[in-house]
Amino acid sequence: MAKLARSPTASPPAAAADRHRSAAGSGLRSLASAASGWFDRWAVMGSGLSKLERAFGDQFPEGERYFGLENFGNTCYCNSVLQALYYCAPFREQLLEYYSKNRNLEDAEENLLTCLADLFSQISASKKKTGVIAPKRFIQMVRKLNEYFRGYMHQGTLTNETRCLMCETITAKDETFFDLSVDIEQNSSLTSCLKNFFSTETLNADDKFFCDKCCSLQEAEKRMKIKKVPQTLVIHLKRFKFIEQLNRNKKLSYRVVYPLELKLSSSSSDAVADCEYSLFAVVVHLGSGPNQGHYVAKIKSHDHWLSFDDDNVEMIPESTLQTFYGSSREYSGNTDHGYILFYERIGGNGDEKTDSSDGV
């Protein structure tokens, strides 16, 4: 009996069944993949959790809020400093206390302090844990006044001490300060920069000091000392310097290592032998020159480091801070450098003062 000719397109029953199962399996996998993707998107949308909230997970700090600040055009520096101030616990607490006592005063005149207090209150009282807020009133007031903060801004006190080398009389003048503005050098550390800031300078030749006791110009030694140590120590690294040969300002990309824990030695302060501080915020300048670039803030909150880039807030590893030390070479592709450092004192209340018997 002649066999039936097999069609070239026909398949053996077993092979056809295998392909059928394979196609079915592929279809199920595609369906499962699509369902999984849809479920993931639904979970994110349904939970309403932000990226930052998911990063924190069940470790989100109780009662804390993390809000980005809208940029109104060239306000990134202001936004970065505002974030650092908000996460300065003593400053925030006093400002919110001020707001609670004065918010119902109908005749209260709006000023920089009230606008800042209102901004902080909006953030801390928000029902949402994360988000973006527009500091419009505060920015408008800053542009209107263009002056330093008043009222509850923390200050420590510096003493400008000059000793006449003829009669040994010490003349001291107290100066309040908002921050320590220190010169920097290539491949140095914050500790060495502070050591130079508090070092003794000899006044001679054309720079002689007029001594009231000698009633004449005399050679003298001059130094700066901290008379009252602050609870919050703000250090400004002088990265922008006027270069006479270029007749313009230049950014110094010097590598300056700043520690997570900082000690002020007795050479800088007679108030306390060794004051210890912990780094909690760094304002970073991104860019190669003083007239261009961008500012962001890296802030420690509840043992987590976060990056505040205007309206964007995200968690970062602590090791990221090392990338902002600066460059060991003059010309480098790294243009992101630490500019302002915020330290909080570990223990103590910052009220210690020197003994008045030493002339300070």
TrEMBL record:
Domain USP: 67-346
One GO process term, biological-process aspect: protein deubiquitination
Molecular-function annotations in GO: cysteine-type deubiquitinase activity
Classification via CDD domains: Peptidase_C19G
Domain of life: Eukaryota
Sequence similarity: Belongs to the peptidase C19 family.
Name under which the protein is recorded: USP domain-containing protein
Organism: Sorghum bicolor (Sorghum)
